[in-house]
Amino acid sequence: MSATLETPLEAPRSQNPKLLTLLLKDKVATLAALVLCFVFLTAVFGPMLVAEQAREQNLLNANAEPFTLDGGWLNFLGTDPLGRSVLARLIVASRTTLSVAVPAVLLSLVIGSLIGMWAGYHRGRRETVVMRIADIILSFPSLLMAVVVLYIFSPSSANLVLVLAITRIPIYLRTARAESAELQSRLFVDAARTFGTKPTAIIFRHVLPIILPTLLTVATLDFCFVMLSESSLSFLGIGIQPPSVSWGLMVAQGRTYLQTAWWLSFFPGLAIVITTVSATVLASWARLATDPAQRWRLTLPRHKRGRKEVK
Amino acid sequence: MSNLLEVNDLTKTFDVKDGKLKALDGISLKLGKGETLGLVGESGCGKSTLARTLLMLEKPDAGTVRFDGTDPFALRGKQLLAWRRRVQMVFQDPYGSLNSRMTAGQIIAEPWKTHKHMYANSRDRAARVRELLHLVGLRPSDADRYPQEFSGGQRQRLGIARALALQPDVIICDEPVSALDLSVQAQVLNLLNDLQRQLQVSYVFISHDLSVVRHVADRVAVMYLGRVVEQGPTEAVFERPKHPYTAALMSAAPKLHQADRGERILLKGEIPSPLNPPSGCRFRTRCWKATDICASAAPPLVQDPESKDHGAECHHPMESPRQLALA
Amino acid sequence: MSALSVQDLTVDIETPNGPLRAVNGVGFEAEQGETLALLGESGCGKSMTAQAIVGLLEPIASVTQGSVTLNGTDLVKASRRKRRQMAGPELAIVFQDALTALNPVYTVGTQLAEPFRIHRRMSAKEARGEAIELMRRVGIPHPDKRVDAFPHQFSGGMRQRLLIAMAVALNPTVLLADEPTTALDVTVQAQIMALLKDLRAEREMAVVLITHDLALVAEEADKVAVMYAGHVVETGPVSEVFGDPGHPYTKGLLDSVPVHVARGEELASIGGTPPDLASIPSGCVYQARCPLARQKCRDERPQLKATQGQRKAACHFTEEV
Amino acid sequence: MTGFLRRRAVTSLLPLIAVLLGVFFLARLTGDPANLYLPVSATPEQRQNFIEANGLDDSIWVQMWDYLGGVLTLDFGDSLRTGESAAAMALRAFPATLQLAFSTMLIAVVGAVVIGSWAAYRPNSVADRISSFLSMTAASVPDFWFAIVGVWIFAVSLGWLPTSGVTGGMASWVLPVATLVIRPLGVLTQVVRGAMVSALSAPYVRLARSKGAGDLRVVTHHALRNAAAPALTVAGDLMVGLINGAVVVETIFGWPGIGKLMIDSILGRDFAVLQACVLLTAVSIFVLNILIDIGYALLDARVREKVSA
Amino acid sequence: NSEYVTGGGADGLRIVLPQEPPTLEACQSSLTATGVVVRSNITEPLLERDPDSGELEPLLATEWEQTSPETWTFKLREGVTFTDGTPFDAEAAAFTIDRAVNSDLACEVEGYVFGDTDLEVEAVDETTLTVTSPEPDPILPLRLSFVEMVSTKTSTTEKVREPIGTGPYRVADWQAGQRLSLESNPGYWGEVPAYKNVNYVWRAEGSVRAAMVANGEADIATSLAPEDGAGELAVAYANNETTALRMQADQPPLDDIRIRQAVNYVIDRKLLAETLFEKLAQPAGELIPDGIVGYEPDEQIWPYDAARAKQLVDEARADGVPVDTEIRLIGRNAQFPRITETIEVIQGELAKAGLNVKIEMMDTNAQLEYQIRPFPKDTGPYLLMIMHGNQAGDAAFTLDQYMLAEGYQSSWGTAEFDQKIRAAEALVGQERQDAMAALWQYEQEEITQYAYIAHMSAIMAKSPNVSYRPNSASGDEMRLAEMSPVS
Ligand SMILES: Nc1ncnc2c1ncn2[C@@H]1O[C@H](COP(=O)(O)OP(=O)(O)OP(=O)(O)O)[C@@H](O)[C@H]1O
Ligand SMILES: Nc1ncnc2c1ncn2[C@@H]1O[C@H](COP(=O)(O)OP(=O)(O)OP(=O)(O)O)[C@@H](O)[C@H]1O
Ligand SMILES: [Mg+2]
Ligand SMILES: [Mg+2]
User: Fold this and answer.
1) Which stretches make up the ABC transporter domain (chain C) (predicted)?
2) What is the atom index within ligand 2 of the atom nearest the CA of C40?
3) Phi, psi of B38 (to 5 degrees)
4) Is residue A173 included in any domain, yes or no?
């Protein structure tokens, strides 16, 4: 066609550096990713290596102090009141912890966001009903729900996941609904409608990718919340049941020993903190990295990122 | 010319805070195959609303839309999808109508995700995306860039490329070139023109740049406050505007050459609120020719004696273009 | 001495693939009481230039070179404090994305009063009075009532006027207006242009008007600077430049205007696309699209040099245009 | 606005009833409290008597009606554990919880706004990174851990504060509030920072700067109010958690609040008290939600219009 | 830093308990949380048992004798009045016993000490009271030592929250949820107690209770665990409590005695007592500790023999016993310090012996369903951790509840064993002691319903300013009158 002109054919320029390259440029985020990988690998493979040692009781070596190699490297982080290696238990606990927290967060994230996006996209009555349901769950004392479910169905990991997931659904529901309600009035959504795109497809193509980073940020905060809730349930005696062990349970059980054997609750607490801080750091990095409008921030030398004005 | 699109007495009311806002108040238009209908009018007069209603993004309160003899609002399923392919839109706002998380390539290819049959494989699609980018004067490498890395004009071109992706029969262009610079504007207009010649595409062309409308449109409709106040073949309307508003609009446009500059009619005051439009003639509050009758009676349709298709709703139609000078 | 003098202004954008030079050695001057139009293809760096002048570039971009002299002060070197003091009373800008620029949570009255509160330290009541006066000045009906309304309650045209009012509140020496009417229709555009003209005359402002509407430039501006791919390629009085362009790009632009071309007929346009900022060729930036291009253009970048009278052009073969 | 309030109140009624019924049925799933309150030797007759006396023998539907009827007349029955009126117990505990919740929220919000804005003002500066790290950590440490460590450090080792209780004057507030405030402060700081970062890059901020507005004015005047809505949402959620009772803190510090009462009545199968507590908290949460909606409206005129439409 | 007083003046004593008394109703005082405040402080019984010697001593009754096999006659103290001014006489005593034992109030004390027997009470004259039981009851006076005397003005149809008694203290101020203040009874018949005011507060967390004493906010803190950090201030004392595992023998594989023996073999009682219980417990071979009638000093304690246990399980497996069936190991949260740890140790050992054991920690109500008849159905086999404290000083209380086939807290038994128990309970004096002591051996060999673990101790923290020596009853009955300031 004559109206268009010859454009020199050029090799497509890589405009979007690979996420990994971008990640490696950010030392803190890289560190966070490494920590999470480490935690994840520990949770997957660790228990195979030290399951036996984590169970091995030795009442004669109870509450041994940490940071000496006298009791072998396994006892480097001390022992618990039953003389078990705190390190081995931390490793075994990582699997339980993640296998409760991750599914709980994912479940509430998926259910809450799907319903929330659906309600927000369609607005009207559907939205009202969904919001009121969220209100109900939110104002329902979650502890009661926990006690009841765990009472009736026994406190297994699966039930714990269920309880935690249900009580956290409204958070995602509300976030997703609010954002989706705003997005459905955007022009690019209208554009998609003019192609005949189905609402579900629009939700997945236009709404989800935009609110996903927000949801992920909420999810990392929640990841932490879920671990702490699990710990609080253990505090009340209805969490993970021994001999299974989770970080939350270790903190809760160790709290009574805070003056006599601080390491019992300190190390699992530290594990929770490190994991959630890493998750949060990585999530906020991902939020920038997946947003084309913000991504540049990650590519700048650090000192420049924040500048608002030119000097 | 058979009418591809026919709109009769279309009315659209929005419920807003303090009452009902009549954005469209009895609009009747027709568009033939391979024809371009120019739609001009002041900001907020309902042009975009009309476009959105034609695309079934809004549901009209009354009136009918016929596309190739069928009512699109009654279509379902496959037929609806087929209709969707045939009618496309270029949105007014190049900032809001592109999803900032998708690359230009993804944006242009998006319609094919719904209309899967159009291109068999991803290679064909990629090739077609490059072709479309080329068509609107962007580089193939731009396919990997995100909308915010483009300037306003470049974005608008992406919107046009996306509308072309489905090879539609009708494109409703809502201010497609107002964000473009002249050279690119010329390219885009040429492009639209070529498509029309080769593929018989029809356009509804919304713009407030009269020189552009004059260049592209076969027929022109002038809107004011939700109503078409003047309508006719382009030349007729431009040469012999009947409605004072049309005349004012034309005089307000800046002219490149000194010779074209006439006396400018500067309209006074703001557009009245569409919530309670003036009684009688809705232009009377800003019209320098208004008399008492304008307030009491709705203006009649006055035909242009020289062109049967050209008419305006006015109590005091303009007699000759020179009358402008008297204003 | 000119009110605003921009010399060799260079702006780089940091991108994942290294820096891009969006504005490259731009220079122009604006005189008191005059309008200078900054013209150019979309994406050529007009907005960047304006933002660099007022020192409000997006964090991604930064001025790497050049000077911006306003009333004898170099803004690029000035302290943040100094700049802040000058922003408003001496230098004002109307941004391109004006329709979203008003703060949605405050009444327009509060926002209009802000310059007075900041620079004149007026009481809230006094400043409000000034705000009403400004609204009246830019022709907003019933200003004493509308002063307490929120931005979203105004139409686009009115919001644009509010922004202009805010910019001229303290009688700045220089006003930068970045496409102040692109979002508006012609009747409103005419009103706003008339308003700007009045203010300019009344307050002896220098106005830098950014637009790509040649007709608007022809009607409103005294001088014009034409930009292409981050460079100023031609400057001079509007009538002279438009009458007899000294750069092939200016000529190309003028030829693209769709007047006096029959319907359906091909419009003239400049072939090709502007160069990618990441790979600007050495030599003339316009070479790829220039009908006059030859070896010299590929080897050597033409400098902006005086041709006749006040005019300057950056072309090796100005005479041939 | 009043119309909005009325509508909100009406639409809140159904969820409120749903919560009450939910608590009613769920509580009854946790088993019969007879073992707790009857002597081990209780004969079947005594059990029967106990069950009848407490109305546990009627069909669950009859019980439900009685319960709902009681709610309407504000009669929640008596506590099994103490024999007192359940409503009185709940009403006595609630102020303690509210005091704790309000002071915690006040500190958390003020702290988060100050720290969050400061961090957002220069994203990625050293100050920002430190405060981000601290707020993330704060958000992820178990509260009972802080509580116990706090008691030993500040009460026992340093002797600055009382360990627990409500009778030690202002000083006795310090540890419970400090324990409670840590997590909300951490969470809110992150939220405020995020919202402020985007508010500070909004076009209106650039406009304000073009008017010569200084840093402080830009932050406090232009960005903060725009960033307030998301913070308000999160603060509301956190407040809901606090109103539902800070069980752990109340337990450790012997704070006679509703959280402790609720958990005690759950563990004690003291249904009447539990129901009274839940009604009280649920109503306050609905009121809180309405207040938050009013907050949105006060912050932003656009919401105000939507609300009154 | 003792400026943060939890109430009371300079002459006030401050005690921190693990929980608030749900009520002060005197007939509920066999509930630990109620009794620890009420008994012998606010109200008094007719006689009281010396925790050390086990002898009954006169209190509101000065003399008593068995006047017929079924009837006991009590001579009451004169000149005693209740704090509401009503006199204490035989009428009042009869009223109290009727109210606590024969009424429909379902008092805790009724079940705890009297089973379902009703008593016939008669006020012969002002100071003479006769009590008749349907069957001859040699320990009726001991049982009556649990009945706290209350004023005749007390309601008979409802339990009351604050009792009117004759004790050295009366309730001054009860701010529910926060604190309970007692003040000395000005009209007390006996010696005036050393402290004029006593303030109780409650904190659930042991380390906080310990910290309060360390910080000078409280003078006495009860129910501490070794790790709570009371340090020098900690005082340990035997508290009559014995822990044990109850084994449900109605479900395989626990119906096989070899499995129950295996459970007994894997519990290393000595090691537990020395390490986990920090030497504050004694390995147990029976459900009652020293000092209780029926205690068998030469108790046979199961040796720790993991190999034997495994062998027994294997044998059972070979005989087709479904030893792989999941066995639930049920415990009650916070029943005693380190209960979870104890249960984990046992679970670990049982797993090594080849049994499939799953721990379930429950809240009190849920656990009680398993502990007290009627038991839940379809539970599968389970081991229940129990802790029994015989406050009465006579094994009969224990035997009735834990050993009889139909005992309230016993899951099963045999007719033969029941007969032996009944016979022993009918005896008095040394005969009674010997007959009862012999039962433990029998139970372990023939029945094996229990795996006894340890006789426990309690820890309290006590400020150096208070002079008090806790005894085995202190956990249930903390006599304020025995406390005095160190001068
Ligand atoms: N969803 C809506 N709800 C309420 N009012 C609306 C809605 N959409 C449009 N309007 C109103 O309808 C009228 C017509 O709007 P429309 O966008 O069609 O104008 P336009 O002619 O396209 O103007 P412009 O030239 O500025 O694009 C305006 O007054 C507008 O405020
Ligand atoms: N975030 C970014 N990343 C990469 N390039 C950018 C970015 N922002 C702007 N640019 C580029 O900078 C150049 C100058 O942009 P500028 O906004 O100054 O153009 P303009 O002349 O104002 O155009 P218009 O008339 O369309 O507004 C453009 O080519 C644009 O593509
Ligand atoms: Mg429009
Ligand atoms: Mg621009």
Assistant:
1) 4-254
2) 21
3) -90, 140
4) yes
Q: Which two tokens stand for residue B68?
A: 């190739």
- ipTM of predicted complex: 0.82
> In this structure, what CATH number is given to the domain that contains residue A234?
1.10.3720.10
Is B79 near ligand 2, meaning CB less than 6 Å away?
Answer: no
Q: Whose C-alpha lies nearest to ligand 2, atom 18?
A: C45
Query: pLDDT tens digits, residue range E77-128?
Result: 988 999 988 999 999 999 999 888 888 777 877 777 776 678 889 899 888 9
At the second CATH level, the architecture of D96-257 is Orthogonal Bundle (1.10)
Other Cβ atoms less than 10 A from the Cβ of E13: the count is 25
* Contacts for C116 with CB less than 8 Å, ≥ 6 apart: C122, C126, C127, C130, C131, C169, C170
Buried b (16+ CB within 10 A) or exposed e, B253-274: bbbbeeeeeeebbebeebbeeb
In a domain, A4, yes or no: no
pLDDT of D154: 84
Find the C46 Cα to ligand 4 centroid distance in Å. Answer: 6
Range of the domain at C8: 2-105+150-320
Interchain CB contact of D309 with B (< 8 Å): yes
C120 within a domain of the structure (yes/no): no
* In the predicted structure, residue D40 carries a pLDDT above the cut 70: no
Q: What is the pLDDT of residue D102?
A: 92
Classify the phi-psi angles of E440: left when phi > 0, otherwise alpha if psi is within -120 to 50, otherwise beta: alpha
| Number of folded domains that form chain A | 1
Distance E480 CA to ligand 1 centre (A): 84
C270 is a domain residue: yes
Q: Which residue has the higher pLDDT, E349 or A239?
A: E349
User: Can you state the angle between helices E306-318 and E339-352, rounded to 10 degrees?
Assistant: 60
CATH of the domain at C263: 3.40.50.300
- The verdict on residue C193 lying in a domain is yes
Residue A45: band (very low, low, confident or very high) from pLDDT cuts 50, 70, 90 = very high
Across the interface, whether the CB atoms of C105 and D212 are under 8 A apart is answered no
Distance (Å) from CA B48 to ligand 3 centroid: 4
Alpha-carbon distance of D210 to E139, in angstroms, equals: 96
Q: Do the domain assignments include residue C122?
A: no
Residue A133 and residue A177 in contact, taking contact as beta carbons nearer than 8 Å: no
| pLDDT at B151 > cutoff 60 | yes
Q: Averaged over C72-81, what is the pLDDT?
A: 86
Q: Taking residues B171-190, report their average pLDDT.
A: 81
B14 lines ligand 1 (CB under 6 A): yes
Is-contact A176 D280, C-beta < 8 A? no
Decide: C22 in ligand 2 pocket, CB within 6 A. yes
Mean pLDDT, chain A, integer: 82
Asked if residue A10 is part of any domain, the answer here is no
Q: What is the structure's pLDDT at E228?
A: 86
HEC string for D156-177: HHCCCCCCCCCCCCCHHHHHHH
Q: Atom 20 in ligand 2: which residue has the minimum CA distance?
A: C43
Q: What does the DSSP assignment read for C85-102?
A: HHBTTTEEEE-TTGGGTS
pLDDT in tens, D105-150: 999 999 999 999 988 888 778 888 888 889 888 888 888 788 888 8
Once rounded to an integer, what is the mean pLDDT over residues D182-207?
Answer: 88
Can you tell me the mean pLDDT for A97-108? 92
Residue D30 sits at the chain A interface (C-beta within 8 Å) = yes
Considering only CB atoms, D144 lies closest to which of A142, A224, A235, namely A235
Residue B102 has pLDDT above 50, yes or no: yes
Query: Residue B256: its chain C contacts at CB < 8 A?
Result: 214-215, 218, 242, 254, 257, 259
Interchain pair C17, A300: CB under 8 A: no
pLDDT digits (tens, 9 = 90+) for B229-271: 999 998 888 888 889 888 888 888 777 777 777 777 777 766 7
The total domain count for chain C is 1
Looking at the DSSP assignment, which residues form a beta bridge with residue B88?
B171
